[in-house]
Amino acid sequence: MAGRNEETLEHLELLGNQNTKYKFEYDPDILEPIDNLHSRDYFVKFNCPEFTSLCPQTGQPDFATIYLSFIPDKTLVESKSLKLYLFSFRNHGDFHEDVVNIIMNDLIKLMDPRYIEVWGKFTPRGGLSIDPYTNYGQPGTKYEEMASYRMMNHDMNPETITNR
User: Fold this and answer.
1) pTM value?
2) Residues with catalytic roles
């Protein structure tokens, strides 16, 4: 495999664009797909430690680290488009549980991954932190079984939280 060339990247509008426009309202259309050149299983992990959204009732800001992990099938998400997409939640009002499910649903629609999980580690507000987790495996495959197993066991060994 020789790698990617200009022809394989020509459909990307954001990568390398010096005139990036940041959207302040939720916009899933920002996401850009890119071909997965590898047929084997492997994880792609993204961590977004500066995620923000708004409480739908009070309008107060919610801060989180969003952890995305997926096993791609034929498509990946281009990382700059993902960054701008996550930024688009800046003025979006939704509950923490809704945010992680919206992100997962948008990425499933874009990529149709073999497996995906999204975990939000929200900083405490009012003395309470909320850490919603969701996942998905392609139905009828070993990835559906993996999703079930990881859902049942995802928090058996809680990690050390160092960002709050």
Assistant:
1) 0.86
2) 55, 62
